[in-house]
Amino acid sequence: MTSPAGRANPIRVLIIDDSALMRQLLTELLSRDSGLEVVGCAPDPLVARDKIKQLHPDVLTLDVEMPRMDGLTFLENLMRLHPMPVVMVSSLTERGAEVTLQALELGAVDFVTKPKLDIESGMAAYAGELVAKIKMAATVRPRRPAQAASDKPPPRYRRQYSTTEKIIAIGASTGGTEAIRDVLEQMPADAPAVLIVQHIPALFSGPFAERMNRHSAMAVCQAEDGQQVVPGHVYIAPGDYHLTLVRNGARYVCRLTQDAPENRHRPSVDMLFRSVAQQAGANAVGAILTGMGEDGARGLLLLRQAGAPTVAQDEASCVVWGMPGAAVRLGGAQEILPLRDIASRLLALAAEAGPGNSSGSRFAATGR
User: Which of 171, 213, 170, 225 is nearest to 192 (CA)?
Assistant: First the structure.
């Protein structure tokens, strides 16, 4: 394998993990790729701090639970004083999930999960994912910690009579946990129903939904099979389940399946978008946010062809412009917007969406 395009030298990686076995395994696995060079290892953040100064790595891998200084404190200090790309190596536990989500909020680019059992063979299986994420991280502009949400409440939106409820469908991957938070923080409590696919492991999606619920005026939950889709609520696909929209009489409901992965993902953004295009059509609005790969690009095009307004996050505000970029190239994105403008635009488009605008739903901003 070769270095990423445009790089003359391998990506310099510093491994930070308190387990000597993990440091050895990660060093062996990463060193097999000619595009990477493991320049050093550190058993804790204090040693890592000195080695960063000495070795000037391009990317760090960081264990979430560390001695002497916990990984989150180290990450927060790093991103405040010397921002650089970090890939978290997380435990596949509820505690690991919560800490990892906090790390992404603090500026980590992405994460991989350690296998619970048979670490040596399990890590070998994860080698391809880890290498890909380190290479992607090396291309990312480091982010400082996320700004605290404004104390100013989101605007209220007056819902008028509608015969068909509007649906907002959102897809994201790498960098998406924070992009989704940014969007949901700006949504008022009476916004149209939002369905979300974020590529995330099964054990992480529940804590992610709970975290989003704390940041949103809307009611955010992990979607359940057969659950009715109603305004003011956000439904996040559970990890390892596809989320689709179906009709049950005059109502929309969530459908969860474990059909084969699509675009190597389950849940798949394409599968969600395709179902929304089929079931809601012009009464929907679609948005594709930051993420690696192309999942969602074809689905966003189907939404647009069905008459739904569509939005893609712009390259400058993305952690990775893979998914939005693919949608733009395919012609699926009607508008390309910075992240800060997406929530308000989705609300405006939802107000306009639908074939019968004169008698359909309207959302008029009234302020507070």
Answer: 170
Band the pLDDT of 367: cuts 50, 70, 90.
Answer: very low
Q: Which of 63, 199, 233, 270 is catalytic?
A: 199
Q: Is 63 a catalytic residue?
A: no
Mean pLDDT value of segment 211-229: 97
Is residue 91 among the annotated active site residues?
A: no
Q: Which of 58, 63, 182, 295 is catalytic?
A: 295
pTM for the full predicted model:
0.89
Give the 3-state secondary structure of residue 48: helix
- How many CB atoms within 10 Å of residue 216? 23
The residues, any chain, with a CB within 8 Å of residue 257's CB and separated by 6 or more, are 241, 242, 244
Residue 50's pLDDT band, with cuts at 50, 70 and 90, is very high
Residue 145: pLDDT band by 50, 70, 90 thresholds? low
DSSP letter for 150, please: P
- Is 199 in the active site? yes
Per-residue pLDDT, 279: 97
Q: Give the count of beta carbons closer than 10 Å to the beta carbon of residue 304.
A: 20
Name the DSSP letter for residue 353: -
Cα separation, 20 vs 4, in Å, equals 29
